[in-house]
Amino acid sequence: MAGERILVVDDSAQMRDFLANVVLLGDDYVVDTAEDGAEGLAVALANPPDLIITDQAMPQLSGLEMVEELRQAGHDIPAILITAEGSENIAVRALRAGVMDYFVKPFDATELQEAIQRILRAARVGNVRTGVPDQRRLEALNTLIAIGKSVTSLLDLEMILSRVTEAAVYLAGAEEGTLMLVDSETGELYVRAAKNLEEGLRSMRLPVRDSLAGRVVKTGQPLFIGGEGMQKIKTQYLVRSLLYVPLKVRDRVIGVLGVHNRLVDRPLSQEAVGIISALADYAAIAIVNARLFAQSEAERTKLSRILHQIQDAVLLVDYEGRIVLCNPVAQKFLDRAGDENPVGHWISDMTDNVSLLDLLDWSTGEPPKQGEVRLGDERIFNAQVSEVQGVGWAVVMQDITHLKELSRIKSELLTMASHDLRSPLTAILTYIELISRVGELNERQAQFARQVKQSVQSITELIDDLLRLNQIEAGLGHRQERVSLPQIARHAIEAFQGQAEVKGIRLRLEAEGEVPPVFGDPVRLRHMYANLVENAIKYTPQGGEVRVAVTEEGGEVISRVSDTGIGISPEDQPHIFNQFYRASGVTGKYRGIGLGLSIVKSIVDRHGGRIWVESQPGQGTTFTIVLPAATMNEDEIQSEVGRYRRS
């Protein structure tokens, strides 16, 4: 209601400002403030407010002492106490002092706003406390405390709502009580809990549009009727007096808590509005908690079913190394757990699996992101490690035994094919060389011989590329040492200088400032540059330029290989690193089988780097490679070695 006066008493200017300009803003309240209990007492005596919001611990006069002196002076003003500590003793003393509610710091501003509205609403119905004896109020407080404990400690919603309804009947001195909720599907009110209600009435449903309880749902305000004759709740269900208060979740009414006198001609007290409203608040909290718990249980059950049915191993370990979650597949790795539930135990106590323990090694600050874990002598799992913020590390392990076997077979086939193909290819090249020695060839015969020789060389290059790609993907022969990329790039450029000069292409290297080394395999890094430079020369027309630039930016070494060639269309760019992919428009014009860039990408990945392409047709192409600089100490280097090998 507009114009209600509220006095804010707090020795903290920041808290006074927060209460006056945030909590109380927008409801047309008249707000007075005081800096301590003594000033608050003077302001309240001079101009009594409708409500006092006061801090407890203040110099000169505490909040409770101020309210007590106001009562002694004949001013029974509703008050809300804000305190830094909460206990039943403080609650009892606060109620005896005339305090309607109290909040422990830190508190929820929305809950405080709801308490303010509830107390002022009750005050509008009638004087909240006049004539209520301390003993009766103490009983009410003890009941509210018991209900509050039930809300936070019990998960049985049926029991909590029954207790709330019984408490409402007892505290209001009523004959019977009901707690009704709004059916979300029909919009009707139905009885969820009742006290002393006839069995036949427990199944009643009330329309919201034309019932007394429905009026409370629509207005969101308490309804008090007494001494006005018989009131119809439902056909053939009449009462002499009633009190209904809304159950609210935020600003939405979800139900009604009501008490009635049906037989006894004794009106209910208006002073019960505040207490019944508090009980309704507890009921609303219990309903919300129950719904949240039900949702949580449903999600937990769903997650549990998924974890038990998937074929991947899922393991969750906290930051200290204790097992938080483990599905049946993952439990096979915990060879020391036996039939015992491993949850809550240290991972190191549950398994002797060295590859799994190495993966979860915190000695370098955090575990590697991925690796391989062996189960026994036969099965191999690819493990991905990711952080679950605030919980720990999740390990998802996928059985790749079959893929490993296929990879082994592929490698053997490639090796055998390479061996079996190289012998006849060598023989063909030898005979091509010998043909010219046994007799002079005419121009047409010489051209045929050159074409055969080029074809054999292309097949040989294909075999070499396939073997090289297979070795890179398998991690075979991968050396680890500090490497200077400018030096490696210079060697690659020198190797292609003659080829560039034939086409009149300018080939240059730019290395700005001190470029730190990277940690990797010098041979494969040379292949990386060689493939990119060779491609650039191949697709750059006569008189063009190919540039290799190496710089350091933010702890990373950046290499850019740029040309002024034919460019790559936007449609081809997403696929350019795929094996055997060749851009449109180059097939038939330029030699190649589409493995060069795939090899480059594999080398970059093996070194923990990134690569991307930027190009416009007819305007040239730039390949950018980012590799981590080798700026760590020796222990960190060894850790990186392990990470690269596992990846």
Structure characterization notes:
The protein contains 19 helices and 23 strands. With 647 residues, it is α+β, with helices and mostly antiparallel strands. It has 5 domains: 5-128, Response regulator (Rossmann fold), CATH 3.40.50; 140-291, GAF domain (Beta-Lactamase); 307-397, Beta-Lactamase (2-Layer Sandwich); 403-474; 481-646, Heat Shock Protein 90 (2-Layer Sandwich). The strands form 5 sheets. Strands 8-7-6-11-10-9 form a 6-stranded antiparallel β-sheet, with helices on both faces. The protein has a 5-stranded parallel β-sheet with strand order 2-1-3-4-5, sandwiched between helices. Residues 125-133 and 634-647 have low confidence and may be disordered.
Put the structure in a nutshell:
The protein has 19 helices and 23 strands.
Attribute tags:
647 residues, alpha+beta, Rossmann fold, Beta-Lactamase, 5 domains, 6-stranded antiparallel β-sheet, 5-stranded parallel β-sheet, 19 helices, 43% helix, elongated, disordered C terminus
**Could you estimate the helical fraction of the residues in percent?**
40-55%
| Count of extended strands | 23
Sheet with the most strands? 6 strands, antiparallel
Q: Approximately what portion of the residues adopt beta-strand conformation?
A: 15-25%
Compute the separation of the termini in Å. 67 Å
User: Within the CATH hierarchy, at the fold level, what is the topology of the largest domain?
Assistant: Heat Shock Protein 90
